[in-house]
Structures are given as structure tokens and as C-alpha cells.
């Protein structure tokens, strides 16, 4: 007799390539035309793509599904990732300021994941926090088009910060792939 499992069956909305999230024509991360020219536009394009990927991994889920934790003892969840990246965007703003650091959004270490509970108000706040923090850092960094310019108390190069942001989103999009597949079987792309 086979064991019953709560593991969802793998599925996708894609019809052209069944191992993809969506068909290429429906993918919001790809626009018409060639990739951008220049280093800064390329970095911004990759960052935007990973931001879209994270949103896609969270789309269509209930607060309970977004708050579903991975394997114990980890507190990682899709909602936790939204909150964590909002916190990271805020922290990166602290890297480029000469003034006093902005306070943490969620409190002490790991509060971004620990406080990711299945409540619509928490979900709404996480999305709002992420959008606000992304926009704020984007606006501040727009004043520094020279990727080699060093800014903030620590003199970080704009290029280093941009690459770090891309790395952080890419890493967590990998986590989001696995988390989403555990929630409802939807496979990543």
C-alpha cells in the first residue's frame, strides 16, 4: 500500500515549455527588443528581472500559503522572503548614507522571517514595505550613475552595491522556487 503524501503534484501554466513557469510570450520579465546597452542598464535589467521573479513566485497565494515555512527548524517562507528583502533594501540605503542609519523595519535579527505570519494585513504590509524600500533606494542610487563612484561612510562602490543587490535577489529567488513548489507544486523558471 502506497503512502499518502501532502506533497503537491508538479504543475505549470506554460504550454510551450512544460518545465517553465509561464510561456515566454507571457513572461513579464522579457520585453520586446534587444537587451540594454551599457553596464548600468544591464545591471538594472537583471535586478528588475529578479524582482519580477520574486513577485511571480508569490502571486496567487493566500496568506497561509505565503507564510508556509520550509523544513524545520528553518523559518523561511515566501512571505518571510518579501519581508527580508524589504529589510535588505532599507539596509542598503544605510550603506550609502553619511548620516544616521535608518531603523530596522521589523526589529531584531530574524524578525523579518519570525514575524511572517498568515495574516492579510502582514502580507499587505510586506508588499508595501518592499515596494517603498525598493523605490527609495532606486531613487537615491539614481543620483550616482558612475558605477565606480564610492559613496557612504564605508566608501562602497556603486557597482559593488548593484552586484550585491542582484546576488541577494537571485539567491532568494532560488529559495522561492523551492518554497513555491512545496506550497502548490508550481515549478520555477
From TrEMBL:
Which residues, if any, are the signal sequence?
Answer: none
- What Gene3D superfamilies does this protein map onto? dinb family like domain
Question: Source organism's superkingdom?
Answer: Bacteria
UniProt-annotated stretches for the region Disordered? 22-41
Q: Coiled coil located at which positions?
A: none
Classification via InterPro entries:
DinB/YfiT-like (IPR034660), MST-like (IPR007061)
- Protein name, UniProt field: DinB family protein
Tell me the organism's taxonomic lineage: Bacteria, Bacillati, Actinomycetota, Actinomycetes, Kitasatosporales
